[in-house]
Amino acid sequence: MDKAERLRPQFEALVGAAHVWGREEDLSHYNNDNRGLYFGDAALIVRPGSTEEVSRVLALAYENDIAVVPQSGHTGHSAGGVPAKGQIVVTTERLTQVRNIDPDNNALAVDAGVILENIHALAAAQDRLYPVSLAAKGSCRIGGNVATNAGGTGVLAYGNTRDNVLGLEVVLPDGRIWDGMRALRKDNTGYDLKHLFIGSEGTLGLITGVVLKLVPKPKGREVAFVGLRDPAQALALLLHLKGQLGSELTAFEIMPRTPIDFTLAYQASLRDPFPEPYPWYALVEISSGLSSDAARENAEQRLAAALESEIALDVALAQSEAQRQDFWAIRETMPPAQKPQGWSIKHDIALPVHRVPEFFQRADDIVAQALPGARICGFGHMGDGNIHYNITQPEGAPKALFEPKRQEINAKIHTLVSDMQGSVSAEHGIGLAKKALLAETKSPVELAMMQAVKQALDPKGLMNPGKIFD
Asked: For residue range 426-438, what is the model confidence (pLDDT) as tens digits?
């Protein structure tokens, strides 16, 4: 019996017996990663219902040298929430209180377990927008978004999660509570400690509360699919629209035809934006703070100019809110639509925006040589240089022939990214999946600084051990 199992009665006394689960339960959701590559074996799942309960749970674990794996919605892609044998998972799924909504200050304070889609609804009810959005918005929780510095589709105009957090509440490894729930835009009193925890993947403490920055809700929003010849034409279109629209260009997503086909086969209710296929596409969102008419006029004029300048082959501008949602659904359904097509090799990389076309050309050549017939699904947030370069096994090929190529192709793609001054992890984090890559791509000085922070805040090494670095 693990030490944590022997202490189960004490954990139950802290949060209630109904909120401590052991191996007699189905713990697969908490143990395993989303891609089926990593499998955990938690001793207990502990579900505290308040910050004070989290504090007591972590203090008990600390006193008894029990490792803690924080979990939020557990929707990540780098196995950052997978527990090893004997560790306990402490989940924020019961921390769902709305603490304060302050539309005059454009701020929203919530518990860390609030689902992202619910935060969008809370903001919208105040005629405000929380601009971080991602495909998992219906199940991911804000604490996990903060802990992984989630990006998503709005980074081009609004920045990633780090840029939209004003304050945090964090329980430290020994159970102490740091109250940094400040809704200030300027606070120059020493180190800005919240940034230590944003993107730390639960290795420094457990986030229990968040103050989010809101923005005025756009009065108008237009969404268009644009048919393109290649990524170079997509870059020309991006530069054209960004130069004309500035921050009113709120999203620019790029995708080839292959993931469009996968999505339309997977989701029968969605329709092809065009009567004929194009090699590449951009999904463009243009917003206006003035009115829906202003957004429409801007979109029509700028996209018409792109057609006239031959930096677009075709444009399909959504004609209703339902069609706008369908256009976004095509893009956001791409990750699950890959699964029925077979085994995938996935990359979450970032590059200087102007080098994205070059990357596609060089990466596609690498895949063609290493794995002929593989289907490339390289899509993502071209506006901020973040590409999900995914590779699906050749049609009809057995997994046994494809899966062994994963390490070879990963190494070649990540080497290419590093050579192009990019990042091997744009928004999915490091977790277990990319520890070796972090050691290869960060300098000894950077690694030493990170490890010094870890040692200072978690001297026993009990918070999410084995993640990011050993």
From this structure: 888 899 888 888 8
More confident residue, 35 or 255: 255
Other Cβ atoms closer than 10 A to 60:
19
Contacts within 8 Å (CB) and 24+ apart, 185-194? 194/165, 194/167, 194/168
**Nearest CA among 12, 16, 150, 11 for reference residue 75:** 150
Dist. CA 305–CA 325, nearest whole Å: 25
pLDDT of the residue at 35: 78
Predicted TM-score (pTM) of the model is 0.92
What does DSSP say about strands 220-228 and 165-171: parallel, antiparallel, or unpaired?
Answer: unpaired
Q: Are 289 and 128 in contact (CB under 8 A)?
A: no
CA distance 250 to 227: 19
- What distance in Å separates the CA atoms of residue 468 and residue 470, rounded to the nearest whole number? 7
Q: Find the farthest-apart pair of alpha carbons in the chain and give their distance in angstroms, rounded.
A: 72
Name every residue whose Cβ is closer than 8 Å to that of residue 380 and which is 6 or more positions away in sequence. 253, 254, 255, 386, 387, 388, 389
| Burial of 91 (C-beta count, 10 Å sphere; 0-12/13-18/19+) | buried
DSSP state of 84: P
Q: Which helix (H) or strand (E) holds 402?
A: helix 399-402
- pLDDT single digits (tens) 100-131: 999 999 999 999 999 999 999 999 999 999 99
